[in-house]
Every structure is written in structure tokens, then in C-alpha cells.
Amino acid sequence: MSKYVIVGASAAGIGAVEAIREVDPVGSITVISEEPCPHYSRPMISDLVSGKATFEKMKCREDEFWQKNQVQTLTGRTAISLNIGNKYVALDKGEQVSFEKLLIATGGKPFIPKMEGSDKDGVLTFTTLSDAERLAARLENAKSAVVIGAGLIGVSVTEALVKRGLKVILVELQDKILSLLLDPTGSDIVEDVIRKAGVTVVTGQSVQRIIGKPENDRVVGGVVLTKGELVPCDLVIVAIGVIPRIELVAGTDVKLNRGIVVDNFMRTNIPDVYASGDVAEAYDFVLNQNRLLPLWPLAVLEGKVAGYNMAGKKTDYEGGTNMSALKYFSVPIVSIGVTNPKDESAYEILVKHEPEKSLYKKFVLKDNVIVGITLVNDIERAGILFHLMKKHVNVKKIKKELLSETFSLATLSPSVRRKIYPGE
């Protein structure tokens, strides 16, 4: 029996191992992972496809990480079921791994809608290293691709394909790209840059079916859009998003909503069973509720909180929120919290837009507290702004300064500075 068993060896799993070892240097740890080489940065897989990064650069820990932390790794293995009463995880080849404490960090999997022809050769997803390697291997013989979904994953893979010289058609069901991150103005700025890079952007439609090549119907030859237009292509990448991998707890008493429900210690409703990362519904400090937040930095933090608590160091998760810092097609963007509220009348909106510079700043306030931040092409002060938001600082007296080019830490009063940076 292992004292600690962790199912999943990506961000949350790695964070948990490090936290456990800070508290318990000798307790046995077993990590189960479907991937043969798990400690790499998933946000960097587009850099691998584009040629910007090698696998060595993608590694987020040294090769000796597991050995140094005295971890037994079962890689290339699938955890297929959980027995809560007898406290063991059943693996794909019949073995049972017993535990005292269990962390479920199984992450998410690509959402693939029902589409005629989705089983054809050349239909790919884009969430793991193996996905990226399969895509990269096909690029020499491909000239064009359709990317379904214009969220973070879709825009990321689109940029990678453009850098490799492919003609890309980006198809998005919503009226705007990056609609979960940006409002229409911010979206239009990014879409304009993407179009100028040679990408065809189709919004308000999706792919109705995928068709084969005339000479071989089993291989991707094109797609038919919702309105009937036929778009020839060599590859189709489904990048609509991810859904939590909750199969391991199916049929058990572990409480589920969309993902696994946890408290602020990353505990499930079952004693000694924890969950973290993309599979867990954790606390959002802006919305004041638990929800799915499939983001790498939050998964690492949640894993650490779980690891500390599993090892006996009581640690509270302060919460995260929807936040992304990215730079696609040379446009730096920061998006945090409620950036595009459905009912704007319930909020105060501060905006600065300079179209000639493609610059856009937007702050969403509720009772004089920042609950949403959008920065496009000017992200230097994102850190300070995030801390104002995280600490729920009343910004009534500095609203005008928030949009100013001269806004900085020095703009804030000493009392506010102490509140957001208490150690200084």
C-alpha cells in the first residue's frame, strides 16, 4: 500500500508531489499516468508544432524529478475504476494500487461534438504531447487545415499551423473569437490581426460534416459548414475545449457536478480522497462559488494545496478565477475575471480604446471593486491590477488612474500598497 496515490502526473500531480515532500520526506508516493512522459508544459505544445520549441524546452521539471522525490511511477497506465470501501485504484491490466490518501488529478479531455466523418484519418485534437506529435508528423504532407473552435486552444494551434506555412480556416460557432475571454471590441482587435496573418475566420457557423478525399474516403478531404459551404482541407483539428475526466469516479459516492466537487482543502465528500486541476470544481474568488477553471497555474496551486493537506499540513485554497495571459500573433493579452458581463447595467465599466494603436483596456467594477480586467497590447501593469482585484481593494479614489498610462504602484497610497503586498 502507498501512503499517497496520485492519478495524473501533469500540473496538479506535480504540485502535489512537491507539497507532500515538503511535509513528509519519506511517505511512499505512487503516481499513475496514461502518458509515458508526463512532466512537460502542456501550454507549450503549440510551440512544439510551430517549431519554436523542442521537447527539451517543454519540460517543466528535470528528468530525475520522480527519482529525487522517491516517487514510484506507473506511466503509460490507465486507472479504470476506484474502490472507495477497500481504498484501491484498479488499473488497466488488472493490478490494484492501494492507498491511504488519494488525489484524483485526471485533468480534462477534448470535447468532440457528434459530426459525420469525425472518425476519418486526419481528424485530430490538440491537448497533449501525443496530440502535438501526431499533428507535427502530418504537416510535411499537408497544405491546409480547418480548426474548429476559436478559443484559447483553437487560436493557439492556428498560430502554430500558420508558422508552418499552412493555409488555415478558423471556424467558430459564436459570433466572435475568444468569446470567453474578450468582449466584442477586444475580439475584433485580435481577429483583425489573425486575418492579416492570412487566416480565414468563419464565425457564427460550425462544421456540419467532414468529407473524405475523392480517391480515398477514409482520409480527410474537406468539411461542410453549417450553411452548406464546402471547404477543402487536408487536416481537421477539433479545438472546442476540454471537459473534466470524471470516468474514474463514475458509479462511486464521490460527489459530482460538472466536475468533482471539492472544498477549500481540495477534499471531496469522501474521507482521504482529494481532487485538483481540470477535473475539480474549485473556488472562484470573483464569483464566490466553485466552478471548473481549466488553467495550468491554478492546477499547480490546487495540487499543492491538496498535497499539503494530504500530508497533514492544513492549507486553505484562497481561490482562483478565469485568467489568461497570452501572446498569439504578436498580440499580448491579459484577461481576468468577469470581462464580458451579460448584464452590464449591474456593473460599472471603464474603457480605454485607441484603435490606431490596437490598444484596449477595460475594467469591470462591482461596488467599486475590480471584478474583471481586459488588457490588449498594454499588459505591463497586469500584476498590480490583479492584486488589487484579488485583495478586493476599493478603487473608488483611483478609477481615473486605472486607465492612465502613468498608472503604477507609486499611484497607490501606502495603505493600499501594504494591503496588496503585505510583505513590503
Helical content (DSSP H or I, runs of 4+):
10-25%
What kind of sheet is the major sheet? 7 strands, mixed
The portion of residues forming beta strands comes to 25-35%
Q: Outline, from the CA principal axes? A: globular
Average pLDDT, all residues: 94
Features:
alpha/beta, 25 strands, 424 residues, single chain, 11 helices, 5-stranded parallel sheet, 7-stranded mixed sheet, globular
Notes on the protein architecture:
With 424 residues, the protein is of the alpha/beta class. 23% of the residues lie in helices and 31% in strands. It contains eleven helices and 25 strands. The strands form six sheets. Strands 1, 2, 3, 4, 5, 6 and 18 form a seven-stranded mixed β-sheet that branches. Strands 8-15-9-10-11 form a five-stranded parallel β-sheet, with helices on one face. Strands 21-22-25-24-23 form a five-stranded antiparallel β-sheet, with helices on both faces. Strand 13 and strand 14 form a beta hairpin. The mean pLDDT is 94.
